[in-house]
Design goal:
single chain, 564 residues, alpha/beta, 18 strands, globular
């Protein structure tokens, strides 16, 4: 208040000068200066041994004084932020991550992955190939689909590690304490990996995602773009901190996992989330153990070789197949007994079982994070399900990736004041046009139908006898607002609100607790263009799935990448 008062009156004499000085100096500095100097010296504008700039500054009026300088910390923080989330930075990430795909080349690689034949894959632990032995098991895995969506024609064989293999692996890495001493070296290696082995192998990654996911080429391309954007964000944060540490001396690169072990497990429907987690954990200093589904092993085997090719030291990243009913559960338990961190994406039920098992095995120091599934819902507020935008959003939230996403909706709450009923919502949503098929090369497909999955969307109008749950299928329950079952959105990874305006949707959305909340304003003109949104919408790179810090079921996401 004193500073404000000083700026409203023209200072006069020495007192006025001191009052002006108070505008641009801290109270403590002003007091120190007054003690050390004589007041007449202020009027003379000079004193032996005192910088001339201070008395010269003291004669400026408050109205003409320079604005307060930004602190070194503030300036450094601004530069660090702009390196990651400025418009220029995000535009560059989009241009890199979402660059056009050579579809002809991707289709050719996809056909190569699905071609008839048998391939033996070598599983290595600390550089040594696993051969038949006690506790080890050889398995054969067919591709999920065959050429043009027909029966599988290719099989891959691999060896599953034993509990003893896992124990020796973790013990050897702890004893060697493999790590990269200099964060600059780690940054250079990861930058080279991102440029040459992620962006430079876009076609290979997209084709393998389509073959082993399985997914349409379009869905696989979208997964790749999201993951590439997240890796770019992690790298920009890391290298921005390095520049701040060396140039500004305001920040230090803190590698919380330096010398520690991290178990990374990808979900069964979004393989490259495991790669995103591996990169992020490596940048934090962890040694990474990737335990993957056997059908994902062909792609992760190439990823492991790519890391070695760009100079990542042996022992920093190990990849083994193991997420399968064929595996000895004691192998995974051995990892849970010893690792320092679990980074997981997938079913909340499986995540809780893994954490509980680690605690039962005595691993009380385990840190854990990731993105877990939840009871996601769509809320229609003053908007009818018959509106094309709402119908498309509800259908998409339930159908995308066969309803197997962690963000797939389980519930749609409709607004009875619009005249909607459960039966009218069912009719409107189920009538929405979506193309379902089996050929991953078909660019017109919205959903690639997997074996054992239904080929239609089902809207339930009452809770089935088996109870309300995560469906993991193209299914959603329609209920009027305020009725049972009531779903607390702190159990949701994705929550979507449809209202007549974005402002109204924001008003409602900000009262919720979901990790990721999509607020949609619906145009009154049903023929006007509208966003296709639901509980699965994403924007590269600001809110790509896997990038937001999530707290579904109080599970901290552990990754600050994009915003939510």
């Amino acid at each position: 208040k004193r500073h404000k008062a000083a700026s409203t009156a023209q200072p006069s004499g020495a007192f006025g000068a001191m009052r002006s000085l108070a505008v641009v100096s801290s109270r403590r500095a002003l007091r120190t200066w007054l003690v050390r100097s004589r007041l007449p010296a202020l009027a003379r504008g000079a004193r032996p041994g005192f910088p001339e700039a201070v008395p010269r500054l003291s004669f400026r009026t408050a109205a003409s004084a320079s604005p307060a300088q930004v602190s070194a910390l503030g300036a450094s923080a601004r530069r660090l932020r702009e390196a990651i989330v400025s418009h220029a930075a995000t535009s560059e990430i989009v241009a890199e991550a979402d660059a056009p795909l050579d579809r002809a080349a991707a289709a050719a690689r996809l056909r190569q992955e699905l071609h008839e034949g048998t391939t033996d894959f070598e599983v290595t632990v600390l550089g040594e190939a696993l051969v038949p032995g006690p506790g080890r098991k050889s398995i054969s895995v067919p591709t999920p689909i065959g050429p043009a969506g027909g029966p599988a024609a290719r099989t891959v064989n691999m060896m599953l590690p034993s509990r003893e293999d896992m124990s020796k692996l973790l013990a050897a890495r702890r004893e060697a304490n493999t790590r990269l001493e200099k964060p600059e070296d780690l940054g250079d290696i990861m930058e080279k990996f991102y440029r040459e082995k992620v962006l430079g192998r876009r076609v290979d990654h997209v084709a393998m995602l389509a073959a082993w996911g399985p997914k349409t080429l379009g869905d696989a391309e979208g997964e790749f773009a999201e993951i590439a954007a997240l890796i770019a964000l992690s790298l920009r944060a890391f290298k921005g901190a390095l520049r701040a540490q060396k140039g500004d001396f305001q920040f230090e690169v803190h590698r919380a996992g330096d010398g520690k072990e991290c178990l990374v497990m990808p979900p069964s429907n979004f393989a490259l989330l495991g790669l995103k987690d591996a990169v992020h954990m490596l940048l934090q200093g962890f040694r990474v153990l990737l335990v993957v589904q056997p059908r994902f092993f062909p792609q992760f085997k190439e990823i492991q070789q790519d890391f070695a090719a760009v100079g990542l030291p042996a022992g920093m990243l190990e990849v083994v197949p193991g997420i399968t009913p064929d595996a000895d559960p004691e192998v995974l338990h051995e990892a849970l007994r010893h690792v320092d961190r679990l980074q997981f994406t997938g079913s909340s039920a499986m995540f809780k079982n893994l954490v509980i098992k680690a605690l039962e095995l005595g691993n009380l120091r385990l840190e854990h994070g990731g993105e877990v599934s939840g009871l996601n819902k769509v809320r229609l507020d003053q908007v009818s399900a018959t509106h094309p935008a709402a119908a498309a959003g509800v259908a998409w939230a339930a159908m995308a990736n066969n309803g197997e996403l962690c963000t797939s909706s389980s519930l749609v709450e409709f607004d009875p004041t619009t005249g909607d009923t459960a039966s009218s919502v069912k009719a409107a949503v189920e009538a929405h046009s979506f193309r379902v098929g089996r050929d991953p090369e078909d660019l017109e497909l919205n959903v690639l139908l997997k074996e054992g999955k239904t080929d239609k969307l089902e809207v339930l109008t009452e809770v089935p006898s088996t109870g309300f749950r995560e469906w993991w299928e193209k299914t959603v329950l329609a209920i009027p607002q305020g009725s049972e079952p009531k779903v607390r959105t702190n159990q949701s990874l994705g929550h979507c609100v449809y209202s007549p305006s974005i402002e109204r949707a924001l008003e409602i959305g900000t009262q919720e607790d979901a990790s990721c909340i999509y607020c949609v304003g619906v145009p009154s003109d049903a023929t006007a263009p509208s966003a296709r949104a639901g509980t699965t919408g994403c924007k590269v790179p600001e809110s790509v799935f896997g990038g937001m810090k999530t707290y579904t079921f109080a599970v901290a996401g552990g990754h600050n990448g994009g915003g939510s």
